[in-house]
Hints:
Elements: H1 2-23, E1 50-53, E2 58-61, E3 70-74, E4 79-82, E5 84-88, E6 91-96, E7 99-104, E8 117-120, E9 131-134, E10 143-147, E11 152-154, E12 157-161, E13 164-169, E14 172-175, E15 179-181, E16 191-195, E17 200-203, E18 212-216, E19 221-224, E20 226-230, E21 233-238, E22 241-244, E23 248-250, E24 259-263, E25 269-272, E26 281-285, E27 290-293, E28 295-299, E29 302-306, E30 311-313, E31 317-319
Antiparallel strand pairs: 1-4, 2-3, 5-6, 6-7, 8-11, 8-15, 9-10, 12-13, 13-14, 16-19, 16-23, 17-18, 20-21, 21-22, 24-27, 24-31, 25-26, 28-29, 29-30
Amino acid sequence: MKKLTLLVLFLLLCLGLICTGLCGCSLLEKFIDLPEISLPTKEETAPAEQSFTLPITTEFYAEPSWDAPVVSILKAGSTVSYSQVVTISGVTWAQTDQGWFAMEGTRPAPEVEIFSQYFVYNTRAFPYDSIPVYDQPASFSNVLGRAEPGDLLEITEMAETPEGTWGFASLGWVNMQNVYVESHVAGLHHGFGVVREMDVAFSDLPNWQSTAAEYADAGFRFEIYEQIFIDGSWWAFTPYGWVCMDYVYEEGTVGTRPCKAMVIDKTPLNVRLAPGTDNKILSTLRYGDYVQILERVTCNGKDWGFTGKGWIYMDLTEIQ
């Protein structure tokens, strides 16, 4: 009987040990205090920042990619701190507070593609100023030279920076706010013009050596998309090409023959879109009306005057 009792106790002890292995808890822990054992933990530390002095004016990108947007530009000699470095397609990129920049590796050369014909120009306030050409698309980078108003630029690459849009030509980088591209869109000097003389040429380029695309006679009215100042004259880009404004009256400006006139014809005097009786009637003037004439143009032997709202036949008025 005693042996049977010992056997039962032994079996119960074995069963308890088995349960401890399966459940992770020992029945003996209630009666025996075991010391807690803690494993050593590895302390994580942030990578130390390193400094780098930029050898040239450098662009910083939103991501480590040449196709990512440029978020900032620093000039040569600036010191930056970086903490992360990655190599992608043979280019080593470093991450800074300003963005990602390429520490090693060069930007792939762009495919040569002429976007269009661009011409250097400035505002009417500073028509004689040339514009600087830089080695990088940034106004604080090195100036390589200057481009004169009227210079033709073949832009092969564009870049968007915090300073705006830049274009790369054979001379270097220029800010595109000073460059005009031929476009049938209203520019800074948009308006309408009327030819003042006979056989005025419209050319493919804004210079006297270019080929004339067509000719127009006095009274011909056209839209002016933009104007640039070249060699002492303003040139206008139109649907028909470039024309020198020396032979054109720009509507709304005071011309060379302004005057004041009174309508003397008893019948209503038509105010037309352009000089000539075959042009659209915009409104009429009545006998005795006074009108300010901004410019007069002779068309087919007849004198026409611009009122600011259209053209009238001057033979039916009396100049005051």
